[in-house]
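User: Predict the complex with S-adenosylmethionine.
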Amino acid sequence: MSFSVDFLNENLNMVNKFLKMNKPIEEINEDLKKETNINHFFRSKVELYEFRDYLLGLTNKKKKEITLNQDLGDFQTPLDFTYKICQYLQNQNLNPEFLLEPTCGEGNFVISALKIFPDLKKVFCIDLQPKYEWEFKLNIIKLRSEREFQAEINFYRLNIFSSEFSNIFKKFEKYTKKEFLVIGNPPWITNTELSKLNSSNLPEKSNFKGLKGLNALTGKSNFDIAEYIMINLLQNLIKSRLSGKIAFLLKDTVIKKLLIENHRNSLKLSKNHALEANFQKIFHIHANGSLFIANFGESSENTCKKLSFHEKTKNPHYEMFGWVNNKFVSNIENYTKYKWLEGKSPKIWRQGVKHDLSKVMVLYYDQKGILLNGNGEKVDIESKFLYPFLKSSDLQVKIAQKSRFELIITQHKLGQDTKLLEEKAPNLWGYLNQNLDKFNARKSKIYNNKPLFSIFGIGDYTFKPYKIGVSGFYKKLNFCLIKPQDDKPVILDDTSYFLFFEKLMDAFFTWIFLNFPDIKEFLSSLVFVNAKRPYTKEVLMRLNYAKLIEKCTFSNFKSFYHENLEGELKMQFNEGDFNTFKSELKKSDN
Ligand SMILES: C[S@@+](CC[C@H](N)C(=O)[O-])C[C@H]1O[C@@H](n2cnc3c(N)ncnc32)[C@H](O)[C@@H]1O
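Assistant: Here is the predicted structure with S-adenosylmethionine placed in the model:
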């Protein structure tokens, strides 16, 4: 919010007056309480100076400059949006007496709530940054000069990862059963992004690991700080036996994790709603997020309605996601229709090769037919160790085209001794050794104590001639049939998954079946397409496509093929081939 010069000067005069008077801080706070409704405005005299310096800083700048702290996931919610959110809650008949904003920043949620909820009695706000404390307090002073409100305001400058945060909840125990609203927009940053910034804005490790319900997070290498904050917040609310409503702006992935956690370790969330909002437009960031509204402190409900915040119709269309029969799905209605396909994949889906060194390992031929690496350097190595290579982006077609790249394969089995290459392929050995420092600089721990130039996602399956590949990263699901190229099996990258076959006919039949609409409907009822990698091995392994094959007749199969895929691949087959494929699949299943 921007403040007028007059307003800033008035406040500066007030602080200077306090400084001159040399009154005890308690008396100053009492005076200020009458004027602003803020409790304990200054915790110490030092803060009077801090506030004065902050005001001086603002008045000295023509245009107020707000430096956003990247490691604090700092995206202040615009006032007009917080106002719309509070209005929305009011229209849902919410009229809270108590409000908690756990990472309040400049306080736009609080300002809007004070304008909209007439029965608010107490407001509790927290933020770590001094500049926000003063900005927040100025906002309250300004609001108070414009309108009356009865609510008493409490601001705590503290770190929500500290034990002081949990102590605040002790104050709430006497408000049990009162209408409580917990609202806000927690920092938007992942622990990995934080560690890149060398930030200390993280929960203490011991506390973090010990915290009930967080077991699921600690095992994972990357999680959103907001996920931790929300779970910790809800556990504190449960402990203080409060009930009420929460309304938070969260990434969709965080909402999903909350629902998963609610099922696993009751967070007492019910009547869950995710109202999709246009975060790009509101915050100018590329993230898919929603306003998550739920009741807390009553029971745990494991489903969530998904609507649009911007849609204003009376009976808006909605989808539901969450848990059905102990399975987590993205579209309950569709899942219910296609859950007959839920089970275990008859064949194992494998992930492509991981090497973490594209510039050295992925090669290509230039227009003159010269083999180059990703740095544009000429490479002269034994071709036996080069394989046609497809990236995720190459799998968006029904039948794989000629590969643009070649991948160096240093091992045929996991952990195989690579020293053998020195004799078998001296040129390759020389090239790899020239790049030894780059191999040694690979960050992933999986390469530690492994043979030189190791790769992962490698085994007999890598060298099977026929494959059906699918990209994990693309929102649109596509199964791509891959045949050998130049008499060599084609290799996929580690963002892709694949089934592998010895015989073309088996790959062909499976590929046709995977293209049946039921398969797409089932898989898309499981995945959240906005996730970074919607299709994972775990998801694909849930698809028991044998069930579809079992109930499909030859004539249905044939007409589906003729109508949909014959144009992509002409194959001669008869009912005998079809039945052999079916019975072999059944045998392998048994
Ligand atoms: C995304 S901003 C949202 C601010 C405010 N809730 C709003 O909606 O406008 C996140 C806020 O969290 C605060 N914050 C970040 N880490 C914190 C921590 N460890 N403890 C307390 N506040 C923190 C930041 O200072 C920032 O104001």
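The first helix runs from residue 5 to 21.
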